[in-house]
Amino acid sequence: MTMEKNVERGLFDEVMVPCYNPMEMIPVKGEGARVWDQDGNEYIDFAGGIAVSCLGHCHPAMVKALNEQGSKLWHLSNVMTNEPALRLAKKLTEISFAEKVFFANSGAEANEAALKLARRYAADEFGPEKSEIIAFKQGFHGRTFFTVTVGGQEAYSDGFGPKPGDITHLPYNDVAALQAHISDRTCAVMMEPLQGEGGIVSPTPEFVQAVRELCDKHNALLIFDEVQTGNGRTGDFYAYQGLGITPDILSTAKSLGGGFPIGAMLTTTELAKHMKVGVHGSTYGGNPLACAVAEAVVEITSDPKTLAGVKEREVLMREGLQKINDKYGIFSEIRGKGLLLGGALNEAWQGRARDVLVAAGKQGLMMLVAGASVVRFTPSLVITPEEIEQGLARLDKAIASLV
């Protein structure tokens, strides 16, 4: 399958703002866990659009939902509600702790809503001095100015002038540091229940437990950023469900729409009442098209069979990566949970994650990095065992070319 090349990669440099450095090839078609470029080259997708394409490319259930809703109703704004939004919100409350849902269009927007709710609740209930937000170093919460400041990577937030204030960053998994710092001035603690961009770092059970207890002690809200971990990615529908604690506010996006942009903030009725009419909003948030697609996605990703399948696929991925490591001695450890996995490069390979990514691309494998020294894998949750095997074989060849 070769497409006529009337759009070339050089056009990117001509017309696009240069904040990305995309691969040279341009994908034109995707099906399941495979993608084809303009020259008809086939790739196995272990990247999933950065943990978004949870059902792979062009899944029939998603295509059906899009086509059906696309011929009915696309957009209304929140001057009115709509059926897909109500059905999706109901479903999300049924499969989580939440009682109320706010729809947005991205993870950053869902996190923005979560942070604004936490600040508003604290101001209403305790007064304006209770405004500190604690987050964690190497965390990532989005690219709006508020969320990027709460994220714990200064490289992303420096250079844009004065930052939103009263935000503290502590080391992830450090119970003592949190105990020493948190106070009655803290309005919220925001964390990923498994750090994604920061290097695929799982929380220790002690840390998760301590965060919840310290939040309770100081009347601070616990916000879980499940933008990357949610929607079945870790083998539980939400990662908190496998950690034995419950947050007060949860953000979800990325794979919620399986590739169609949608985000959501989930919370309780008690907290939601502080978001009165006019306090927050979104023109596109909860539009019928996005919600109809997300409804089809959630129907599949929340199915116990799908979730069990994620855990089975994790085993296959880990075993395959271990075999590669036995051969080439490249990883110090395989980290993560479910199908959010990271191969941490050992001392000899430090800083070479992008080299692995580029070499993989040449062998027909799409994958990701999480920092300079961790390669990241976030494939479709329904990728076939055969495709996992084939993808790992391509990774093997890629690493062989670098040794």
TrEMBL record:
It is an enzyme of class 2 (transferase). Its EC number is 2.6.1.11. Gene3D superfamilies: Aspartate Aminotransferase, domain 1, Type I PLP-dependent aspartate aminotransferase-like (Major domain). One of its GO terms (cellular component) is cytoplasm. N(2)-acetyl-L-ornithine binds at R143, S282. The keyword Transferase applies. The modification N6-(pyridoxal phosphate)lysine is found at K254. Its main location: cytoplasm. One of its GO terms (biological process) is L-arginine biosynthetic process. Its cofactor is pyridoxal 5'-phosphate. GO terms for molecular function: identical protein binding; N2-acetyl-L-ornithine:2-oxoglutarate 5-aminotransferase activity; pyridoxal phosphate binding. Binds 1 pyridoxal phosphate per subunit. May also have succinyldiaminopimelate aminotransferase activity, thus carrying out the corresponding step in lysine biosynthesis. HAMAP family: ArgD_aminotrans_3. Belongs to the class-III pyridoxal-phosphate-dependent aminotransferase family. ArgD subfamily. This is Acetylornithine aminotransferase.
